[in-house]
Amino acid sequence: MQPIQPITKLISRLWQHIGSRRRGQFWLLLILMILASFAEILSIGAVLPFLGALTAPNRIFEHPAAQPFIQALGLTSADQLLLPLTITFGLAALMAGALRVGLLWTSLRLSFAVGADLSNGIYRRTLYQPYVVHIARNSSEVINGISTKVGEVIFYILMPTLNLISAVVMLVAILVALLTIIPGVALAAFAGFGLVYAFIIRLARNRLKIDSQHIARESTNVIKSLQEGLGGIRDVLIDGSQEVFCTNYRKADHILRRSQGRNQFISYSPRYGMEALAMLLIASLAYVLSKQPDGIAMAIPMLAAMALGMQRLLPALQQAYGAWSIIHGAQASLQDALVLLDQPLPNYAEQPVAKPLPFQNQISLNRVSFRYSTQTPWVLKNIDLTIAKGSRVGFIGTTGSGKSTLLDIIMGLLQPTEGVIEIDGQSITVVDQRSWQTHIAHVPQAIFLADSNIEENIAFGVPKDQIDHERVRKAARQAQIADIIETWPRQYQTNVGERGVQLSGGQRQRIGIARALYKQADVIIFDESTSALDNETELAVMQAIDALGDDLTILIIAHRLSTLKNCTQIIEIASGSIQKINNLTDE
After folding, report:
1. 3-state secondary structure of 519
2. pLDDT in the model for residue 551
3. Rounded to whole angstroms, how far apart are CA atoms 512 and 394?
4. Are 17 and 164 members of one domain?
5. What is the mean pLDDT of the chain?
6. Nearest to 88 by CA among 62, 60, 49, 38
7. pLDDT tens by residue, 47-69
8. Are 548 and 542 in contact (CB under 8 A)?
9. Is the separation of the CB atoms in 384 and 578 below 8 Å?
10. What's the confidence (pLDDT) of residue 148?
C-alpha cells in the first residue's frame, strides 16, 4: 500500500473535487454555525440573570447593566423581573436548540449530497478510462471505491470535518461566554481539558493510522472474496470449496471489524473520563464559593452557569476530538477514493456524441506492434493487414497468439505501441477513436446480459423510454431469434435472469448478435462467440451470422476452420505475427 499523505493534503485534494455550488453551500453552512454559536452564548449568558432573579432579585434590579432592560419594560420592582427573564431564558434556549437542529439537518443533507456527487464522479471517471486501465486492475477495488469508500468519505470525512468546524466555532463561543462570567475558572477548565485531549491525540495517532490502512485494504478484500465466491458458485458447489471462501472472507472481515471497533472506542471513550473531571471541577468550585461572603446566594447562579457551560463545553470538546479521530481513522480510505477521483477524463467525455468517421473502402494496419508496458513482451509485432469493407474475415491461431489483442486494436480499445491503424487512409488517434467506434459492434464469447427483459438487453445501454421497439424486433429477426422469443408468453418483456441464466447458450449468443444489429453498426466483430457452443447450436448461430447483409464487415475469431468456411479471408496468427493469409472465393 502506498504511503499515506497528511490528512490536510488529502482534504485539500478532496476540496478540489467539490463543485462550486457545493462550496457555496459549505460557506452558508459556516454562517449557520456562527449563528448557532451566538445562540449558545445567549443561552449561557441568560442563565446568570435568570437564576439571580430567583435568588437575589434586588441585586439584579439594581445592577447598572440591567437598567436599559428595566426601563424599556417599565418595571418598578425587583419582583417583576422574574417573568421577563424567564421568557428571555426560555426563548434563548429554544432558539439555540432550533439552530442546532437546523445545523444538524443542513450538515447531514450537504454531506450526503457531496457524497452522491463524489460517487457519481468516481463511477463516471471509471467508465471513461481506457480499456488497458480496466484490464490492469481488480474490479473489487473500483466497486469498493464507489460503494464502500465513498460511504466512508461521507461518514468518516465530510460529516466529521463539518462537526470539527462546528465544534471549534462552538468552543470559541462558549469560552467567550464563560470568560465573561467566571474568567479564571473557565480558562483553567478549558486549558486542563484541552491538554488532556492533546495527550490522548498524541497516544492515538499511530494506532488510528494503522487501523485506517487495515480498513482500506480489508474492505476491498471482503468484496473480492464475495465476488469470487458468488461469481464461481457452480465450481464452488461442485468442488465443495465453500469453507475456503468462507475462511478468506472471515479473515478479511475480522480484521476490518476489529479495526473499525478500535477506532470507535478511541473516538468515544475519552468522554466518560472528561465528564468525571467536570463533576470534580464543579464540586471544587461549589466548595470554594460557599466559603465566600454571601456564598450560597452568589454560588447558585455561578454554579448553574458553570454547569451549563460544562454541559456545552464538554460535548463540543468531545465532538472536536471525536471528529479528529474519525477523520484520521478513515485517512487511507480517503486516499484510495481520491485515486479514483483523480482519474483523468478524456476530452470527448465533455463533448457531444461523436459523428461517425467516413468508412467506404478499407481498414488498414501499417506496421502495428503492441505490448502492455515496457516491462512486458510484445503481443503483436509488425502487423500489416488490409480489410476491405463488406468482407468476412476469419482469424485463427493458438491461445495467446494475439488474435483478440489485434481485434481490440481494430476496435480502438487498445492503442498501437508502434504503427498506425487507418480508415480509408485516415489515421485513427485517440481524438477520433470515438468516431471510429460508432461503426463497431462486438459479440464476445461470454455475452453479458443484464437482469432485465429481452428488449432492454437487445437495446443495451439505451434509456428504457428511448428504445425503438420495431428496431428491436427487426434486429431479433436478423439474428434469427425472433421466432423463439415470440412464442414466449411475455415475448420481448421476458426476464432473462442474472447474466442470462434463464436462457440457453445459443439464445444468449443470438441476443448478442441482435444487440450488435440494433446498434446498426457496419463492422461486427465476433470474438470466439461460438467456441463454447455445441455443433448444432454453433451451426444455427453461424447461419444467423451468414444471413447478415453484404454491406456489413464481419471479423470472426474461431478455433475451428469449419466455423470460418464462409469467410472471404482467413488469417492465421502465431506468436504475434501474421503467418498466412488465405483468400477464398465463392464457389
Report:
1. coil
2. 77
3. 19
4. yes
5. 76
6. 49
7. 656 655 566 666 666 666 666 76
8. no
9. yes
10. 75
| Predicted local confidence at residue 57, as pLDDT | 63
Residue 240 domain flag: yes
Report pLDDT for 451.
Answer: 76
- On the 0-12 / 13-18 / 19+ scale of CB atoms within 10 A, 453 is middle
Clarify whether residues 269 and 216 are in a common domain. Answer: yes
In this structure, the answer to whether residues 371 and 334 fall within a common structural domain is no
Which residues are CB-contacts of 301 (< 8 A; sequence separation ≥ 6)?
Answer: 47, 48, 51, 52, 55
Residue 207, classified by CB atoms within 10 Å of its CB into exposed (0-12), middle (13-18) or buried (19+), is: middle
Supply 151's cell numbers: 460511504
Say if 38 falls within a structural domain.
Answer: yes
Q: How many CB atoms lie within 10 A of CB 342?
A: 12
Domain membership of residue 170 as a residue range: 7-341
Per-residue pLDDT at 587: 43
Residues 321 and 382 grouped into a single domain: no
Closest alpha carbon to 454 in 421, 487, 431, 425: 487
Q: pLDDT tens digits, residue range 191-201?
A: 777 777 778 77
Q: Is residue 348 part of a domain?
A: no
Q: Total domain count for the chain?
A: 2
CA distance 193 to 188: 9
CATH number reported for the structural domain that contains residue 392 in this entry: 3.40.50.300
- The candidate with the shortest Cα–Cα distance to 440, out of 467, 460, 470, 410, is 410
> Starting at the edge strand that comes first in sequence, how are the strands of the sheet with 426-427 ordered?
380-388, 362-370, 418-423, 426-427
Residues in the chain where the model's pLDDT stays below 50: 586-587
